[in-house]
Amino acid sequence: MARKRPQGWWYPWIFVGVFGVVFAVNMTMVKFATSTFSGLAVEHAFDKGNAYNMEIAAEKAQQALRWTAAFAVAESRPEADDARTVRWRFAVSDKDGRPVDGLNVEALVERPTVTGHDVRMILHPVGPGTYEAETLLPFKGQWEIRLIAKVKGDPKFRLRDRVRIP
Fold first, then answer.
1. Rounded to 5°, angle at Cα 23 from 20 and 24
2. For residues 165 and 79, what is the distance between their CA atoms, to the nearest angstrom?
3. How do the domains of the chain map onto residue ranges?
4. Closest CA to 98 of 143, 56, 58, 128
5. What's the CATH number for 67-165?
C-alpha cells in the first residue's frame, strides 16, 4: 500500500518560494543600481582632493575681502513648453559699501537632478558693481549656480547658490 503524504507537506515550499521571490527582486535591484549610476559625482575628484588646501586658502582670502554680493533672477519669461528665458543679476560691493567694478564674472547654471542641461554664461557690467546675463533654460524649477568673479584672471569671489525658476 502506498504511503499517504501528511497534511500540509507543502508548507515549507511556501517559504522557499517567498525567499526565492525576494532573492530575485534583490538581484534585479542590484543590477539596476550598478548599471545605471557610474558612481562618479565629481570630475577629477583626486585632483580636487589634493587641491583642498588651496580651496581653504581661497575661501579665507574671499572672507578677508568682506565683499557683499547678491545673485538673483532679475526676470523670468516663459517660452515654449517649460523653457524659460532668464535674466540674471549679480551685484557686489566692497567692505565700505562701494560698488566693485572691473570684474570678469562667469557662471555655470546646473540642473541638480538632470545632467546634460548645464548652461555657461558670462555676466556683463550694466552699472556700478552690477553684472547681468540672459540665458534660455529648458526647464523651470531648481537650478544650482556656481559663479566666479575674477580680477585680471585671478579668482577673487566665488558663489554657489540654488535658485528656483518659476
1. 85
2. 13
3. 67-165
4. 128
5. 2.60.40.1930
